Automatic annotation (TrEMBL):
One of its GO terms (molecular function) is ATP hydrolysis activity. Keywords: ATP-binding, Nucleotide-binding. Pfam families: ABC_tran. Residues 5-230 form the ABC transporter domain. This is ATP-binding cassette domain-containing protein. It comes from the Bacteria. PROSITE patterns: ABC_TRANSPORTER_1, ABC_TRANSPORTER_2. Residues 225-238 have a biased composition (Basic and acidic residues). Residues 218-238 are annotated as: Disordered. PANTHER family: ABC TRANSPORTER I FAMILY MEMBER 10, MOLYBDENUM IMPORT ATP-BINDING PROTEIN MODC 2.
């Protein structure tokens, strides 16, 4: 069945503990959109709020016409068709790698199979191991595989290749780029962003300061952490 691309619309305002934000942005319903910004600016917090794991009092979040949050409505995380790879892979310790991969697995046209994922992510030799004792990079690859096999409508990836060596990183990035689902991809690495993304959204301190096409500008955008005056500026408060 052909799926119609659906944009993700996000608007969050308010506080979560010490973190304050006031931002609005749209993630296109196709391709990879990079979310970047200096450490502590709120990238993980926003991804978690999109997944329904955090809640801003004043928020709107919708995938196409499927509204996940608006005043009076808050769809719980397990009812949102979103996959999430955390910075810290949260694998189920009592299950084998194979069982972790297949946890919540669903078939969806165009999405890779267990065999493809096992091969691309180099997991064949690990399938019978338990997560305890796997290296950080191995755990990260299992977490990516599990998220893909669940075949979500939208994928949130929080620095998903940070623990991988360069060769594996390149393989995984080009694999993710070819997936038929939209991805919001957090990274600090300008080369990685340039390689994988077609759009970039940049935060500083809970505000969107730039949103636009990726491309040769990506390096400059990623390397100006304090610049709040970008010509793509979508900053909402001074
Ligand atoms: N559980 C928490 N309790 C208190 N403050 C928190 C908590 N989680 C995050 N924060 C704060 O919220 C802000 C945003 O954190 P977040 O992890 O979203 O940033 P980030 O942009 O993802 O950072 P990094 O790039 O370093 O991963 C930071 O100032 C952080 O200290």
């Amino acid at each position: 069945m052909t799926r119609t691309p659906r944009d993700l619309t996000v608007m969050f305002q308010g506080r979560l503990q010490a973190f304050r934000c006031d931002l609005a942005f749209t993630v296109p319903g196709h391709g990879v959109t990079a979310l970047t910004g200096p450490s502590g600016c709120g990238k993980t917090t926003i991804l978690r709020a999109i997944a329904g794991l955090h809640r801003f009092d004043n928020g709107f979040c919708a995938l196409g016409d499927e509204v996940w949050q608006k005043p009076g409505v808050f769809v719980p995380p397990h009812r949102r068709s979103v996959g999430y790879v955390f910075q810290e892979p949260s694998l189920l310790p009592h299950l084998s790698v194979r069982q972790n991969l297949l946890y919540g697995a669903r078939a969806r046209a165009g999405m890779p199979t267990l065999e493809e994922i096992t091969s691309v992510l180099g997991l064949a030799g690990l399938l019978h191991r338990r997560p305890t004792g796997l290296s950080g990079g191995e755990q990260q690859r299992v977490a990516i595989g599990r998220a893909l096999l669940a075949a979500p409508a939208f994928l949130l990836l929080d620095e998903p290749v940070s623990a991988l060596d360069r060769d594996r990183k390149n393989t995984v990035v080009s694999f993710l780029k070819r997936l038929p689902i939209p991805i919001l991809y957090v990274s600090h690495d300008s080369d990685e962003i340039l390689e994988i993304s077609s759009e970039i959204i940049r935060f500083v301190d809970g505000f969107v300061i730039r949103a636009g096409r990726s491309g040769p500008d990506a390096t400059r955008i990623c390397q100006q952490p304090e610049d709040r005056s970008g010509h793509w500026g979508e900053r909402r408060h001074g």
